[in-house]
Specification:
- By secondary structure, the protein is of the alpha/beta class.
- The chain has one domain: Metal-dependent hydrolases (TIM Barrel).
- The chain has an 8-stranded parallel sheet, with helices on both faces. The chain has a two-stranded antiparallel sheet with strand order 2-3.
- Strand 5, helix 4 and strand 6 form a beta-alpha-beta unit.
- Helix 4 packs parallel to helix 6.
- The longest helix has 17 residues.
Length: about 250
C-alpha cells in the first residue's frame, strides 16, 4: 500500500463519524470548541450526539439539535435514545421524521440495559421503517459485546448499524454487510499485519469520539496505516456519506 500523507488527506472531504457535544458527568465539549478543532484539522462535518450517561436525554438531545440547526453544513445530529423509557419509540419517530435527526444512538452499557432486551427492537423498528442508521456503543461489556450487535444486524437486514471498534468487532461484523465499524481506536496494526483482507473496508468509518479522544491523533493513526488514497477517501468520509445520505 502506498503511504497516504497528511497533504493527501487534507484534500479529502472528511466526516468525523462520532463526536459528543454537551456536558455530562463523564465529559464536556462546547460546540464552538468542536468547530474550531474541525477547522484546524480540515474536517468538513461531524456527527454529533449527547454524551452518556442517562437515563434521560431530552434536554441533551435538544442541545444537539439546536447546535445542528445553527451549523447545518457542519454538524449532523444523532438522537440518543434510551429504549427503557416509556413511549421512547414515539419520541424516536418524532425525532427522525419531524425534528431532523439523521439516526439514533443506543448505549446499553452506560444506560444500563442489555442489547438483547425486549425493549430494544421496537426502537430499531422505527429506524427500519424510516430508513435510518442505528449507532450502538459496544465493547467488552456484558451489556453489549459486538456479537450482540451482529445478531441485531442479522434480524434487521435493511438497517445499517454502526458500532465501536474492539478486538472482537471485525470478526463479529465480517459477515454482516449492514454492520459498519468505527475506527476509534484506529487499528493501525490491523492493516500492517494484513488482517484488513478479512474485513470489507467499505464498512469502516472514521470517528474520533471527541472529547474522549483527540481527532488529530486519530487522523494521524490513519495516515500511518499506509492506505491507498482511494481506501482512505472511503474511510474518512465516503463510507459514512453513503450510509447517511444514500450515496450523496
Amino acid at each position: 500500500m502506498k503511504k497516504a500523507n497528511a497533504a493527501a488527506r487534507k484534500k479529502m472531504r472528511i466526516i468525523d463519524g462520532h463526536v459528543f457535544v454537551g456536558k455530562s458527568i463523564f465529559m464536556e465539549q462546547k460546540v464552538d470548541d468542536l468547530l474550531a478543532e474541525m477547522d484546524k484539522l480540515g474536517i468538513e462535518a461531524s456527527v454529533i450526539v449527547a454524551p452518556p450517561p442517562g437515563p434521560f436525554y431530552e434536554d441533551a438531545n435538544e442541545f444537539v439539535m439546536e447546535a445542528a440547526k445553527k451549523h447545518p453544513n457542519r454538524l449532523i445530529p444523532l438522537y440518543h435514545a434510551n429504549p427503557q423509557l416509556e413511549k421512547e419509540e414515539e419520541r424516536v419517530r418524532d425525532a427522525l421524521d419531524v425534528e431532523g435527526f439523521v439516526g439514533i444512538q443506543l448505549d446499553p452499557t452506560n444506560d444500563g440495559y442489555f442489547l438483547r432486551s425486549h425493549v430494544v427492537e421496537p426502537v430499531v423498528k422505527v429506524a427500519e421503517e424510516l430508513g435510518r442508521p442505528v449507532y450502538v456503543h459496544s465493547g467488552d461489556s456484558i451489556f453489549c459485546p459486538p456479537e450482540y450487535v451482529a445478531d441485531l444486524a442479522s434480524k434487521f437486514e435493511s438497517v445499517n448499524f454502526i458500532t465501536s471498534m474492539s478486538i472482537r468487532a471485525p470478526r463479529a461484523a465480517r459477515d454482516r454487510n449492514n454492520l459498519y465499524l468505527l475506527t476509534r481506536p484506529f487499528p493501525t496494526l490491523f492493516f500492517k499485519l494484513g488482517f484488513a483482507e478479512e474485513f470489507d473496508l467499505d464498512r469502516l468509518i472514521f470517528a474520533s469520539d471527541s472529547p474522549l479522544d483527540v481527532a488529530q491523533i486519530e487522523l494521524r493513526r490513519i495516515e500511518l496505516a499506509g492506505l491507498e488514497p482511494e481506501v482512505l477517501r472511503k474511510i474518512l468520509g465516503d463510507n459514512l456519506r453513503r450510509v447517511l445520505f444514500k450515496g450523496a
